[in-house]
Design brief:
This protein is mostly helical. It is built from 5 helices and 2 strands; from the N terminus they run E-E-H-H-H-H-H.
């Protein structure tokens, strides 16, 4: 576990399932920011606060969220399939399709946020924003209540360590050690 400069403990890659769960919390907070931005724009336009919020959402969903889905699809999902839990293949297929839908929605929303960040527009499609946030929230809730508990149940210590090593390597971070 690593301590951030803000004092809150952040899980390390020696606890990769906790890293994924913590990322879910950050995704939810970015969805909250999108909702606040949507409410802010009609009264304040693309002011400095709106630009800053758009920049934060863009930065997160262009980098960390992409890495998160890759970690799941390249590393976690194959380990779950190898563990052979009933229904895992259907579960993985469904979650991967949701990742694809989220990516499509993000591509549509991204351009609007770039314009807000640049201060050149103050329009954010309400329906698209709500759809993107709602799908993220339902996806995260499902993973937190079903996928991560399943992983904790069926993956052995060696598989969890492989997951943590793969996630750390993808980010060019050293792995703290054996579980």
């Amino acid at each position: 576990m690593t301590v951030s400069l803000l004092g809150a403990a952040a899980p390390g890659f020696d606890r990769p399932l906790d890293v994924l769960e913590a990322c879910h919390g950050r995704i939810a907070r970015q969805c909250d920011t999108l909702g606040k931005l949507l409410a802010h724009l009609p009264m304040h336009g693309a002011d400095a606060q709106a630009q800053q919020a758009a920049r934060a959402v863009l930065t997160y969903f262009d980098t960390a969220a992409v890495h998160h889905h890759d970690d799941e699809e390249r590393n976690l999902f194959p380990l779950l399939e190898q563990a052979g839990a009933p229904g895992t293949c259907d579960l993985v297929e469904s979650l991967t399709l949701e990742h694809d839908e989220l990516a499509l929605l993000w591509r549509r929303l991204r351009g609007q946020l770039q314009q807000i960040e640049a201060g050149s527009a103050a329009v954010l499609d309400e329906r698209l924003t709500h759809r993107f946030a709602a799908l993220n929230r339902s996806h995260l809730e499902f993973e937190n209540t079903h996928v991560l508990p399943l992983a904790r149940q069926v993956l052995d210590a060696a598989a969890i360590e492989r997951l943590g090593r793969a996630m750390a390597a993808r980010r060019g971070v050293g792995f703290a050690g054996s579980l």
